[in-house]
Design a protein that fits this description.
This protein is of the alpha/beta class and 337 residues long. The chain contains eleven helices and twelve strands. 47% of the residues are buried.
Amino acid sequence: MTVVITGASGHVGANLVRALIDKGRPTRCLVHVNCRALDGLDTEIVPGDISDPDSLRRAFEGADVVYHLAACISLSMSDWAVLEKVNVLGTRNVVEACRHAGVRRLIHFSSIHAVVQEPMSVPVDESRPLVASRHYPPYDRSKAAAEIEVRRGIEKGLDAVIINPTAIIGPYDYQPSYFGEALLSLARRRLPALVTGGFDWVDVRDVAAGAIQAEAKAPPGTKYLLSGHWVSMCDIAAMVTEITGVPAIRFVLPLWLARVGAPFIQAASRLNGKRPLYTGVSLRALKSNRHISRERAARDLGYEPRPFRETLADTLRWFEENGNFTRPDNLKIGESG
């Protein structure tokens, strides 16, 4: 039976499609613009847009399972309009198209950012409420609102499961992602400074495997946090130096000072035509809860993330093999001098 993936050409999608193909599953990929991440794969490519209900009905026809990954990611406090259109109304369209097509199960990809992080002294689990206040970044609120759309579909009889990954890192990051850009800046020694703080990082391949297990094993209507390991930005930079041989960045800003300078960094990035990595939103995220429970996913799905250093080395190796950067000693990652 056909498995449909929305957002298949993104970072998570590129890994999920490969994992499904490896399991012999027939896949159909809904692609909006760029399908470079799917080149050469044995999969059906269908042009479509989650903002277009008719294209979704056509894409979902005959589908057994839908993995809904398509979303807009933003590190800005001023992108609510586009985030609502894509993340919220787009998810509503996906839910209705699944019901119309008689899809057996929907796996909806949400985010750890959709749930309230406070109190910081208590681990975050699936019982945490969704963010709602305008005090939270628009992206966070949009992912929370998208979960509500899925819950409404469940109330109408749709079999759906929600998964909330933490910050994703890993290979097949073609665009690249925001954190992929940060890693490349470290590897090229172009990041002007490090900041204190960190995040819970999870391997994209573990997220894909967890989602596939959720499809197979999760009770209808359940939700799973797919976490990895909390690692500081300074520790990541040190590992990048160890793995690549690129000299370490010595300049470290405290978060409070980085937040003061964030508006100027954003303005400079806009002038250069680049996406800013340090924004008020991204810096706020580096202060989020360090303790994300994966107990439910471990119990129900057998979920267990691999070591972070392994993930980081594999990611840097993929970037190197993909031509994104070159080690200063011209050796490939994993080779000895």
